[in-house]
């Protein structure tokens, strides 16, 4: 528990960052969606180029897999720039599955944290919100990509509030336990 309690401020920063991101997404939904697609495209292109380079440069690794992975990354980056609509739909599904898997892991972590801290429920609430968010994205993908950005914004704010509440709970536990 000492490690968790000493890093309470990391949960606080994580919560504050989520709230700021959520507010910006709500203020500029169109820009947020375009930026997400562009960031993904740039990342996929750069990652693909480096994997391709590594595939041709390093003979001791399984070169074929690096080369194939690099080509797929480069193609994904090009698709993101040429067809941002398809890319944003793919990102919708990626975000949905990420939210579900992250939420489930946070629920499990919250249950384990409850064994250490009495009445600890904020981490579990964050996980439940994450799972609900992911499921809603899967159920209604046709609601529009801008709706995704609004959902991301609201989710980020609610999630940030849950993480901030958790950080203060962990900090108070630290002070109450007399740990530095």
TrEMBL record:
Protein name from the UniProt record: HdeD family acid-resistance protein
Entry superkingdom: Bacteria
Spans traversing the lipid bilayer: 7-27, 33-53, 65-83, 89-109, 121-142, 148-168
Record keywords: Membrane, Transmembrane, Transmembrane helix
InterPro entries per UniProt: Acid_resist_chaperone_HdeD, DUF308_memb
Family annotation (Pfam families): DUF308
Keyword Membrane appears in the UniProt entry: yes
Native source species: Nonomuraea insulae
């Amino acid at each position: 528990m000492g490690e968790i309690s000493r890093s309470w401020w990391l949960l606080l920063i994580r919560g504050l960052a989520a709230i700021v991101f959520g507010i910006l997404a709500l203020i500029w939904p169109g820009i947020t969606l375009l930026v997400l697609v562009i960031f993904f495209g740039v990342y996929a292109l750069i990652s693909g180029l480096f994997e391709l380079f590594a595939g041709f440069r390093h003979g001791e690794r399984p070169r074929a897999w690096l080369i194939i992975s690099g080509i797929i990354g480069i193609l994904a980056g090009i698709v993101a720039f040429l067809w941002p609509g398809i890319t944003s739909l793919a990102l919708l599904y990626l975000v949905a599955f990420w939210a579900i898997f992250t939420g489930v892991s946070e629920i499990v972590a919250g249950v384990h944290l409850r064994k250490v801290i009495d009445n600890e429920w904020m981490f579990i609430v964050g996980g439940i919100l994450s799972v609900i968010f992911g499921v809603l994205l899967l159920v209604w993908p046709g609601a529009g990509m801008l709706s995704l950005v609004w959902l991301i914004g609201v989710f980020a704010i609610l999630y940030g509030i849950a993480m901030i509440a958790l950080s203060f709970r962990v900090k108070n536990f630290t002070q109450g336990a007399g740990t530095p």
